[in-house]
Amino acid sequence: MKNLGIKVSIYLNYFVFAILLNSVGIVIAKSINVYGVSESQASVLEAFKDLPIAIVSFLVASFLPRFGYKKAMLTGLAIVFFGCLSMVFGNSFFSTKILFLSIGVSFALIKLSVYSLIGLITEGKVAHSSLMSSIEGFFMVGIALAYVLFPFFYSEDPNSWLNVYYVLCVLILLSFLFLLFSKVEYNVETSGNSLVDDMRASAKLIVVPLVLVFIISAFLFVMIEQGIMTWLPRFNEKIFFFSEKLSVQMAFIFALSLALGRFIAGYLTKKLSWVLLVIICIVISGGILLFVLPRLKVDIDTLVKIESIVDVPTLGFILPLIGLFIAPIYPLLNSTVLSSLPKKLHSPMSGLIIIFSALGGTIGSRIVGELFESIGGANAFYFLLIPMFLLIVFVLLIDRMSKAKTVI
């Protein structure tokens, strides 16, 4: 298979960071229960994860092709390896901030490299979209594994869950060694003759109408996805009254739905218009929220703690299935815009994608966290209907602009 070594490296690195990056909801719930912080205080972990992603992406996006994608990914893996060790030996809420700071910095390097490499190893919009969706789907498999891996270490000992980071360190080390001995370097075309030219070209991108509309769309989508993903374990615990362990395990269904949705999207994009697929997915996602949330207010005071999956009510299974329908949106948006731009601009464009995705995740999670604390989890999730509606509007604009003969 052509470019097999590159593809395996991309999948493996993305898989490791899927576990790390999206454990934030699990660690937020643990911070509340173990370290005694409030929902609003715990929600800052999203910022410690996402703001470094945005900042590092802004600083290195143009420079990365010159530095080398392999070196960037190896650097990211090394940083997060020591971040995990600091969590084990620190064992405090402050340590969780250091952990997600290291994850954010590292993931910026990984994602910039991955998104740029996809453009180098594919030809045409269909191939780009298919590979993007399958890689993002594999990312979701990693997320799903996190919801199984972390509860495996739960026990009556409040510190036992930290042992999961030893396992993660082993996975990071294996990923580092595989990448180290893999050939993933290619000669790439930069956007200018010097680093200053590269940065100037990146700055000009943000005023391109297609790019401007897209980054707003990416912001809105990640606001939706992270608002659900980050707070679903806590939502399960407080609203459905699941035990702490079951709350995380049930979030596995959401992650698995995301993975399945992105793998299916990789196939459906070869059969259907991407814009039709995205709009259908948004409408169904909003419908699930409107179906589930009003019913959560019925007899909520009479609920008893649920310890086993066999006692989970039907609504507890329906809500996580929203992941099946929001899953295809992000990779399809990314692929549409990236494949509409010259390959020399894929790295700076990837930087913009990551920056505004990170900001959307931080703001969305923060808003849901604040609403969760003030008006309750069920009412907080109604907020997500607003970015869903706006996203439909911007998706239609992207489709019209991407069909123009001259994009940039």
Question: What report would you give on this structure?
Answer:
The protein has 408 residues and is an all-alpha fold. It has one domain: Growth Hormone, Chain: A (Up-down Bundle), CATH 1.20.1250.20. Helix content is 75%, strand content 0%. It is built from 19 helices and no strands. The protein has helices at 4-21, 24-34, 39-42, 44-60, 64-67, 69-90, 93-121, 125-152, 164-180, 195-205, 209-238, 244-268, 274-292, 314-318, 322-326, 329-338, 346-375, 377-380, 385-402. Helix 1 crosses helix 8, helix 1 runs antiparallel to helix 9 (164-180) and helix 7 (93-121) packs antiparallel against helix 17 (346-375). The mean pLDDT is 78.
Short description:
The chain is mainly α. It has helices at 4-21, 24-34, 39-42, 44-60, 64-67, 69-90, 93-121, 125-152, 164-180, 195-205, 209-238, 244-268, 274-292, 314-318, 322-326, 329-338, 346-375, 377-380, 385-402. It contains 19 helices and no strands.
Question: Which descriptors would you attach to this protein?
Answer:
408 residues, 75% helix, globular, Growth Hormone, Chain: A, mainly alpha, 19 helices
Mean pLDDT value: 78
Task: Please state roughly what percent of the residues sit in beta strands, choosing from under 5%, 5-15%, 15-25%, 25-35%, 35-45% or over 45%.
Answer: under 5%
CATH topology: Growth Hormone, Chain: A
Main sheet properties: none
Q: What is the tally of beta strands? A: 0
Question: Which radius of gyration do the C-alpha atoms yield?
Answer: 20 Å
CATH architecture: Up-down Bundle
In helices, the fraction of residues equals: over 70%
Give the number of domains: 1
The ordered H/E elements are: HHHHHHHHHHHHHHHHHHH
**Unreliable runs, pLDDT <50, ≥5 residues?**
none
At the first level of CATH, the class is Mainly Alpha
Distance between the termini: 33 Å
Under CATH, the homologous superfamily reads MFS general substrate transporter like domains
Overall geometry: globular
Structural class: mainly alpha
What is the tally of helical segments?
Answer: 19
